[in-house]
Design a protein that fits this description.
Layout (H helix, E strand, L loop, with lengths): L9 E4 H12 L7 E6 H6 L1 H7 L6 E5 L8 H13 L7 E6 L1 H13 L5 E6 L2 H7 L7 E3 L2 E5 L7 E4 L9 H18 L1 H8 L8 H17 L14 H13 L8 H19 L4 H14 L7 H10 L13 E6 L2 E6 L3 H12 L2
Parallel strand pairs: 1-8, 2-3, 2-4, 4-5, 5-8
Antiparallel strand pairs: 6-7, 9-10
Helix pairs in contact: 4-5, 5-6, 6-7, 6-9, 7-8, 7-9, 7-11, 10-11, 10-13, 11-12, 11-14
């Protein structure tokens, strides 16, 4: 059986994934098997997983759902439970959930007993096409995204699109934003294909294409020294917006994809000003994201606060904020410096019409 994509770890789908799961859990490979879920996936996804997995599970570990709980404190509780249930260096942790579960679970596994194996089984579209693929694990530091973590590859990622039936429309849109990003940074044909699809009309082949794009980039640059930085398009400003909304008592929390969608419009404007993205393509990108995501307004004070939050971005080097921008749709360029006045202008452009 072959992996679905060329990457630093194996990714399987549906029946092949089920067969591989059975094969990997068989024999004496692992002393104990644990499953990490959040309260939502425990209710909606764990029963399906238990139908897929015929092997005994030593323990189900449940955490509270949402970015708010992607913290070291939550990790400590999971480490404690693994220890209390007799986890050792030959144990396996299966992360069954969205991006918070796969990010946090991967970090827990990479650090427990100096590292145990883990398998990601993503249950959201965002996790399938992005969060569970590539080996980035970690947690937030306060409201600052992914400040604590390591790059540690899972033994495999198993994708069962059936889990998507448990999601509400908003969650599907959040994942679709990352799929659109894959087209913008690497493949204009894929971008145009996605534009012709209604967001709810995702299918396995589209998911595979996004995973192939991200997996191919990660395989060439697993530790983000060069080409992997292309995946950061929309995330420098997007993460700052996401952090701001987590911290603000006057703002509703944005899902990751919602914040990144705003970030991609903002950074497309910067691309038009700095790296040659045409006005026609800029307007196309703006129209596309506003089809799926309700525009958000920001005050001058909020804009400055968001810009200030970018100084904590983990991608910064030597005090410089480095952006990934577009030379054209399908062609991203990395390590671009942006003057402050253009950052403010990008928000004005986003909010204009």
């Amino acid at each position: 059986m072959e992996a679905a994509v060329e990457t630093t770890h194996e990714i399987y789908f549906n029946d092949v994934a089920k067969a591989i799961l059975h094969q990997k859990l068989g024999g004496q490979r692992y002393s104990k098997i644990f499953v990490l879920v959040d309260e939502n996936t425990k209710t909606h996804c764990l029963p399906l997983f238990q139908n897929l997995c015929s092997h005994p599970i030593e323990g189900i570990i449940s955490i509270k759902p949402g970015e708010t709980y992607k913290t070291i404190a939550t990790c400590s509780k999971v480490w404690d439970q693994l220890s209390e249930m007799g986890g050792d260096r030959k144990s396996l942790l299966i992360n069954l959930g969205g991006g918070v579960v796969t990010d946090l679970g991967g970090f827990v596994a990479a650090t427990f007993k100096r590292g145990i194996d883990f398998i990601n089984i993503p249950t959201t579209l965002l996790a399938m096409v992005d969060a569970s693929v590539g080996g980035k694990t970690g947690v937030d530091l306060g409201v600052l995204k992914n400040q604590i973590g390591v790059i540690q590859q899972p033994k495999m990622v198993l994708v069962f699109p059936e889990f998507l039936k448990t999601l509400e429309e908003r969650q599907i849109k959040s994942g679709f934003a990352e799929m659109l990003k894959h087209g913008l940074i690497m493949d204009d044909t894929y971008w145009n294909h996605l534009r012709s699809e209604a967001f709810s009309h995702y299918d396995q082949e589209l998911i595979k294409t996004s995973i192939k794009i991200k997996g191919g980039i990660v395989a060439k640059d697993p530790t983000e020294q060069n080409i992997r930085k292309k995946l950061n398009f929309g995330h420098t400003l997007g993460h700052a917006i996401e952090s701001y909304c987590l911290e603000s008592t006057e703002r509703d929390t944005l899902l990751h994809g919602e914040a990144i969608a705003i970030g991609m419009v903002l950074e497309s404007y910067l691309s038009h000003k700095l790296t040659g993205l045409s006005k026609i393509e800029l307007e196309e990108i703006k129209r596309e994201f506003k089809k799926y995501f309700t525009p958000v307004s920001f005050s001058k004070v909020e804009i400055e606060t968001i810009i200030a939050l970018m100084k904590h971005d983990k991608k910064n080097q030597h005090g410089n904020i480095n952006f990934t921008l577009l030379a054209s749709i399908g062609n991203a360029v990395i390590n671009i410096r942006v003057p402050h006045e253009l950052l403010v202008e990008s928000f004005l452009y986003y909010m204009d019409g």
